[in-house]
Amino acid sequence: MYIFMRINSIKKAKDLAGKRVLLRADFNVPIENGRIKDEYKLVQGLPTIRFLLRHNCRIVIITHLGKPDGKKNKDFTVKPIAARLSRIFHKDVRFIDEVIGLKAGTAAGNMENGEIVMLENLRFEPGEEENKRKFAKELAKYADIYINDAFGVSHREHASLAAIKNYLPSYAGLLLEKEVLNLEKARHAANPLILIIGGAKIKTKIRLINGFKNKAYRILLGGALANNFFASRGLETGKSLVDAASLEFARGCKVKNLLLPIDAVVADADGSPKIRSINRIEAGDTILDIGPRTIRLYAGFIKRAATIFWNGPMGRFEDPHYKHGTLAIARLVASRSTGKAFGVVGGGETVEALKMTRMIDDVDFVSTGGGATLAYLGGEKMPGLKGIIN
Ligand code: ADP
Ligand code: MG
After folding, report:
1. Which class would CATH give 189-377?
2. 27-82 confidence digits (pLDDT tens)
3. Which of 288, 316, 319, 374 to mutate to test the pocket of ligand 1 (most atoms within 8 A of CB)?
4. What's the CA-to-centroid distance between 26 and ligand 2, angstroms?
5. How far, in Å, CA of 242 to CA of 40, rounded?
6. Which pairs with CB-CB distance under 8 Å and at least 24 residues apart come from 26-30?
7. CATH of domain 10-178
C-alpha cells in the first residue's frame, strides 16, 4: 500500500539540542482524589518526551484536563500528572500553577537543557477553547518550536492546537505521527473493508457512515444507533432509545451496503432478557443487544475482511445480560486482526469492551481519540493537523 502524506515529524527537525519545546500533549486522564486511575494516555505520550530528553531539549508540557470551561478549578488541576511524570522520569517535572503569566514565563525562561516544566490545565484559560490568537501568542513566547502530540483533540479548533501554529515552527510528535499513519492505513484500506458501527453517540457516527458509504464492502450496524433505522422502516422499537434527529438521517439514508441486526436481546415489559426477531419487538420491550443470529451473520463478514474498523458497542455491554453481542464482536475483530486483517478499534466504551476480552493486543491499532478518529476517518477538517500533516 502506498500512502501519500507529508508529515512534518519531530524526527525531521534539525539542531534540537537546547531548543525550548512547547509540547501539546493529551494527558486527559481520569483522576480521582488526586490519583490517576488509568494511565493509558500518559503512557502513550512518553515516547515523545523521551525523544526530546535524548536530544537535550527544554520541554514545556501543556495539556487539557476535563471541562473546567475557561475558569480556574482545583478539581481539574494537572498537578498529579506532573507528579507522576516526575516519578516516571526520575527528575523533577516542575509544575507551574498557571498557564500564562509571570511564573510561567520565568519558569520557561530559566530552564536548563533536559529540564521539564508542566503548565496548569489549558482550559483554565477562556482563550484556549475560543482559539484566541492573543492567548496562543503568549504560549508561543515560552518556546522555540511547537509539537502537537494530542491527536485526541486535533479535530478541535483550540488555541493550543490551531492558532499556536501561526507563531512557532510546528511538528508532529511521535504518538500523533503513529496515530495518523495507522488511520491513514485504515482509510486507504485493502478490501474487503468491513465497518462496524454501534454505540449511542449518534451524531458523530452519521458522518462516519457517510464518509465510508462508497468505500466499505459492508457497514454492520448495532447498538442504539440501529434503533433509528428500525424505526425509520416502520418497525416497532418499544421503549428503545431512538432520537428524532437521527431518525431523520436514517430515513434519508440510502446506503446499499448497510446491514441491520435481524434479531435482538431485549428487556421485556417485566425487565427480563428475551431474544426476539427484529420484526417481533413488542411495545413493552427495550432493545439492549444484538441477538445470536445477528452475531452469526456479522461473523461471516468479519471473517472475510481484509480491513476492519470498529467503533461503538453493539449493546448495553456494561450490563452482564446484554454484553454478549458486543463481546462476541470484540473477539471476532481481535481474532481476525491477528495477521489476517488490519484491525482498528476506536472509541471510549468500545475500547473498554475490547479490554474485557483480554484480546486488546491482537488488534493492530487501538485509537486513543474517539471523536478525533471519527472526524479523521469521516474526512472532516482537522484544525490541529493543518500545516503539520498534509
Ligand atoms: P464509544 O465511546 O465507544 O464511541 P458511544 O459513546 O457512542 O461509544 O456509546 C457507548 C454506549 O452506548 C455504551 O455505554 C452502551 O451502554 C450504549 N449502548 C449501546 N447500545 C445501546 C442500546 N441498544 N441501548 C442503550 N444503550 C446502548
Ligand atoms: Mg462514549
Report:
1. alpha beta
2. 999 999 999 998 989 999 999 999 999 999 999 999 999 999 999 999 999 999 99
3. 316
4. 17
5. 33
6. 26/63, 26/64, 26/149, 26/150, 26/151, 26/152, 26/153, 26/368, 26/369, 27/61, 27/63, 27/65, 27/78, 27/81, 28/63, 28/64, 28/65, 28/66, 28/152, 28/153, 29/65, 29/81
7. 3.40.50.1260
How many beta carbons lie within 10 A of that of residue 88, not counting itself?
A: 15
How far does residue 134's CA lie from ligand 1's centre (Å)?
Answer: 39
Share of the chain above pLDDT 90, in %: 81
> 299-321 pLDDT, tens per residue?
999 999 999 999 999 999 999 99
What type of residue is 197?
Answer: I
Nearest ligand 1 atom, CA 313: 19
CA distance linking residue 59 with residue 248, whole number of Å? 49
Domain ranges of the chain: 10-178, 189-377
Cα 46 to Cα 23, 33, 54, 175, distances in angstroms: 11, 23, 12, 9
Cell 451473520 appears where? 297
Whether residue 2 is predicted with pLDDT greater than 80 in this model: the reply is no
